[in-house]
Records
---
Amino acid sequence: MTAAPPPLSQLVADGRQALLGWAELADPMIAGMMARAGFDAILLDAQHGFHNEATVVAGITEAALCGKPALVRVAVGAYPLAARMLDYGAAGVVAPMINTAEDASRFVTEVKYPPLGGRSWGPTRAMQIQRQTDPQAFLAEQNARCAAIAMIETRSAMDNLDAILAVEGLDGVLIGPGDLSIGLSGGRLDPVGTQVSQAIATILQAARRNGKLACAFAGTQERAADMVALGFDFTTVGYDAKLIGDAFGSAVASVRGRVDRPG
Ligand code: 3PY
Ligand code: MG
C-alpha cells in the first residue's frame, strides 16, 4: 500500500517550497496525472472549477493513491462544507473571499475540532485516507494536520490582513490575484500588474510575521517561478484546463507547422 499522504506542514518543513496542482476539471484522473507529474499537492476547485462532492471524494482518493495530499476550495461562504471535505480525507480547505477576522473565525470553527473549533465527529473516509485505525490518535492530530487556508483577494481583506492572520487556528493564506486586481483597481483584471505585485509582497510579509503559510496562485509558469523566488510556501502553476488547452494548441500548431512548411 502507498504511504498515507503527508500533511501540508510536512511538505514545507525546513524551508522546502511546494508546487500545487490546480484542478478545475472534475475527472479524478486529472488529480492523479498531476500527482504523478510531480506536483507536491493537488487542489480540487469546487468554487469556479467543476468539482462536486462525488468528484472531490474520487479526486482525493486518486491523489492519495500516489501518496499526495489534496486540498479543496469550497464556494464563497460555504464554511460548513469545509468539515465535509475533511471527512472525505482532504488535507486542508481553502475558503475564498475571506474579508474579515470574523469570516476567518467562522471558517476555522468548521475546520478544527473542539476545543479550538466546532467540527463534528465522523471521519470514516478521512481515517482510511490517513491509514489511521485508532480514532483517538486520529482526533489528537487533526487540528494540526487539517489546514484552514483563507483566500486574500479583496480590498477589505487587505485592510484587515493582520487581524485575519492573527485568528487562532487559521493556518495560512492564499492570494487570488485575479479578484485582488479587480478589487484594488476598481474594476480592471490585471493579475500580474504592479498594484497586485505590491499587495503580494505585503501579504507575504504579513504571513511570515504571523507565522502562517503563504500560498500564491500563479496563472503561468513564469509567474510561478517568480512566486517561488519570492519565497512562497505553496505556488500553483497555471491550472489544468489552461495547461491541457495549451498542450492541444501546441500539438496542432506543431503538426500544421511541419505539414505546411514550404519545400
Ligand atoms: C483569483 O485569482 O481570484 C483566484 O481566485 C484564483 O483562482
Ligand atoms: Mg478569486
---
Amino acid sequence: MSMELITNIGMLATPQGKGPKKGAEQGAIQILKNAWVVIQDGAIIGVGEGPLPQNFDGIELSTITPIDAEGKLVTPGLVDAHTHLIFGGWRQNELGLKLHGKTYLEIQNAGGGIQSTTNATRKATEEELTQKAKKALDEMMGFGVTTCEAKSGYGLATEHERKALQVIQNLNECHPIDLVATFMGAHLVPAEYKTNRAEYIRLVCEEMMPVVKEQGIAKFCDVFCEADTFTVEESRQVLEAGLKYGLRPKIHADEIEAIGGSVLAGEIGAISAEHLIVCPPEGIESLAKGGVVACLLPATSFYLGAGFAPARDMVNAGVPVAMASDFNPGSCPCLNLQFVINLGCLKYKLTPEEVLTAVTLNAAAAIDLADRVGSVEPGKQADLVIWDAPDLDYICYRMGSNLVQTVIKKGVVVR
Ligand code: NIG
Ligand code: FE
C-alpha cells in the first residue's frame, strides 16, 4: 500500500461530481483554504480543510512524508479533451500564406492544410510518430495536463489510420498522461478520392471502422462537418456507422460556417461537439436538448483570427462547456492549456470558476472520464497540479508564463 499526503495547500479549487456541470453549476466549485489531500495507491481517499488530523481513516498521517504545497494553489490535473496529437511534419509555410490573406479553407482547397499533413503522416513510421507525439505530451504535462484525448485523422487510409491509433496506444502505455483515442477517418476526403466522395465515405464506414473496432483502441468517432469538407448528411452517415461499431460520436461543428453540425450533434446524442465558433441559437438549443458537452477551442479562434464561440449563451442555455487546446499543425499549433484558460476569461468572459470546470470536470465528461478524473475528491484518481500561484484568479490573469510548479499523476510526482 502506498500513501501520499499533500499538506499546506493555500487554496484548493475544484469542481465536484462525476458528471458534466451546466448552467450556474458550472461556476459553483469548491474552494478550500489551508487544505490537505490524502492519497492511497494512486487514488484520493481524503480531502480536508484546516489543521491536519493526526489520524485519517486509521492511518497515522505523521508517518507519511508529505508533499508541501507551500501555501499555493492546487487544482485537479488539467484534461485536454481535444487534440490532433498524431501527425507528421509541421505547416509553418502556411503562416506566410495566411498573412497574405489566404483563408484556412483556401489553403486546404489548394492542397495545403490537412492534405499536406496527411502526406507527411503517411510517410512517417509508427516509431517516428510515437517519438514526435511523446515530445508534445511531455510539453503538455509540463503545462499541467494529466489526461488527454488524441485523434487519428491524418492517415485517411486504413493502414495509416490504424497506425495513428496504434501510436496513441503505445504512448498510453509508456507516458504518465492518460490518453483516450478518437478515430477521425472523416477529417477530409483525401486527394485520391476527390472525385468520388461517396467511395471514401464507404471506405471509412465499411473498411476502416471494422479494423478500428477489431484493434480496440478508439472510444470515439469524430467527423469534420464543415463547408468543403463533410456535409451534415455525410457526417450523420459516418457517426451512425461509428455507433454500430461502438464508437461514441463527436463532431467538429460550426468552426467556420454554420452548416448544421451542432444541430446534428444534439439529434444524434453526440458526447461532445467541438469548436462551435459560429454556433447559431438553434444549435445551442439542440446541444442543450441532446445533453451534449460543448468543447470550445479558443486558441484555434485566436490563431485563425476568427470570432469566439458564444460560451456565455451556452452556459445560460444549460449546455456544459468544456475547453481544450485543439493542438494540431494547422489551425492551432499550440498545446498550452494555460493560454486556453486565459482566453476563456478574456474572450469568452467566463469566470475563473467556470473556466476551471471547463478544463477539468467538463473536459473529462467530454471524453467519458468524469467518474475517474477532473476533480479532487475521494474516489477520484490522484491527478493534481500545484501551481506557483496563490489563488485561482492568478492563473487566469497571468499570461505567457508557465505557472505549473508540480504535477502529480496517480499520486506520483511526474514533474
Ligand atoms: O480542429 N478542423 C479540423 N481539424 C483541425 C485542423 C486540422 C488541420 O488544419 O490540420 C481543427 O481545427
Ligand atoms: Fe480539431
---
Amino acid sequence: MTARILDGKALGLAIREEVAVDVAKLAAVGIKPGLAVVLVGEDPASQVYVRSKGRACEEAGMYSVTIRLPDTATQDELLATIDKLNADPAIHGMLVQLPLPKRMDSDKVLRRINPLKDVDGFHPENVGKLVTGDPTAFRPATPYGIQQMLIRSGIETNGAHAVIIGRSNIVGKPMANLLIQQGPGGNATVTVCHSRSKDLPSLTRQGDILIVAIGRAEFLTADMVRPGAVVIDVGINRVEDATREKGYRLCGDVEYEPVAAIASAITPVPGGVGPMTIAMLLKNTLQAAELTRAE
Ligand code: GUN
C-alpha cells in the first residue's frame, strides 16, 4: 500500500478562506478580529512560527501585532505586557510563544492571560472546559487542526483506536481529550504513550490512527506501524545535511518513506500538521472576536 498524502497546506488554506469570509461579516458590524503574539528572545524556530502567524492573520483580514521582548526581559515585564493586552479592546486573542526562557514560570505566565482571549487554549480554565466537553473552550490549535484534518479527509475516528505518542500540554494531552469527546472527530479509543511506556512498538502497532508528537527526528519506524494505519506526524526537526544550502533539512518524527509505504494515509513534513495549526489559530481568534459581538 502507498499512503494517501494528507495535504495540510490545501486543507489549511480552505479553512483560512472560510475564516476570511466570517471576518468580512464581522467587519460589517464594525469588529476587526485582532491577534497579539508575544515572543520572548530570539529562538530561530519560534521567530519563523511567529512571522507565519502574523502574516496569516493579515491575509484573513485580521489585525495582527507581534510584541518582541528581548531575551533579557524579566518575567514581570512579560506579565505587564499580558496585562496591557488583556485590557486592549483591539486585541481579541493573544498567545505567548513557547518555549519561554527557562528562568520563567510558564504556568504563571499562561494563567495571566484572560481566558476569553486565550486562543492557544492553555489557560487552566480552557483546559478544564475542553476536558468536560464545554463547546466554548478554546481548543489548542495543533490538536484541533489534526482533528479537522481527520474529519475533512473522511478518516473515521468513531470507534477507532488512536495511539498518541507524546504527553505534552500543547499536543498529546489535548489531542487525547479531543478524540475521546462525543461527536464528529471524536468517539475514539485513545492510548497515550510517552518516554516511560513499556514496549512502545506493541502499543503503536495497535493504532488505527497514530499521532506522533515526541520531538525526535524519524522516531517512528515502519516496524512500529500496523499496515493500513493513518499516520499523523506532528514533529518538525532540523537535521544536519551538508548537501543542503542551509546545512540542514527538516524532517518529522516519522521515518517518512518506509512508513508511507505501509500506511493508508500520512502527513508530510513540512506541509502537513503545521499549516493546520495556523489555520486553527485564526479560527480561534475569530471565535474570540465573536464573543465580543454577543456582549
Ligand atoms: N510552541 C509550539 N507550539 C506552540 C503553540 O501551539 N502555541 C504556542 N504559544 N507556542 C508553541
